[in-house]
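tool_call: predict_structure(chain=1)
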Amino acid sequence: MNRITKNIFTSVFAVLLIIGVTVSMAYASPAKKIHIGAAHRGLNDDHSVAQDVAMKAACDKLGIEYTLLDAQESVDRQNAQINDLIAMKCDAIIVFPIDSKAILPAIQKIKKAGIVNIGLDSAYMGADLYISFDNERGAERAAEFLVEKLTEKNGDAVGRLLTVIGPLKYEVHATRAKGFQNIMAKYPKIDVVFKTVNNNDEAFALVQNTANVYGDKLDGIFLSSDGFFPGVFSALDKAGRRFKTGNAKHVFTASIDAQPIAIQSIREGYMDASVAQYPDEYGQLAIEWALKLLKGEKPVMGTTVNDPGKPWSPMEFVNLPTGPALLLKPAVVPIEVSTYDEVLYSVRAFEAKKK
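tool_result:
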């Protein structure tokens, strides 16, 4: 082969190679779009809606496909929906468990499929990461607040408190009950009427009966969630014990979640305090950490994450009995966060409802 022929052959081969690569690139499969699923317990309150809105916004911003399935408080439906999300080949599934134990078989299926799973609202075994505020410490803060109020009123940490705590079979209520009891154990002069309820009807009956039995000797009430306030306040009205703060007959109330009903009641002077939750922040963090875990990044236990100026800062990575968790710092409304501070989802939701 002479030099001219060789050069022609080489040039033709190079052109064909470029064409082949170009064609190959043109027909190559596009990069798979990340798909994140959410198995939600039920979009039946502002807290849940705020989480969904935050997750969807985060996914839209990043070009991630997002699918939410609403179990409407049915354990069987939630388990079935998790199977559906697995079948959709989601890369990550965010789980809001109705029952932390009943969900475990479905969680095992997620893990077997090699899918990242992140828990929100209630902790469960097998989550790659659980994101919440510190429920135990939040309840301790509410209990400490009530102790301070009893001390101001009676000159000492003495008096009578009633608890209105949700079903202890649910991890979130059990953890909050533990936090409350942690503090009460330090104050033996405080008589605690420890009770649990399943719904607002039971909360109404409990508070009405307790108020009738103890009369003015009922000093305060701890609720494991603002969700019980409709029943509690109706019962105090019925028993003639609903008075504003500053009135000698006022019954102190401290709760957890800082839902819009709590924001309104604190502003009106009927409720004393609620420990804030941050559902929109949980939703954003869930998407952020789903992506990090998909890339192989692991949280380092014992480290803190600062978010300057935010009431939930610093956040801390800790090992719970259920596994790794990112816990946001509790803040008491209105002591540390104003009822008009729109950093709280509930303030924004309350203001929106007024319009």
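agent: The first strand starts at residue 35 and ends at 40. Proceeding to next step.
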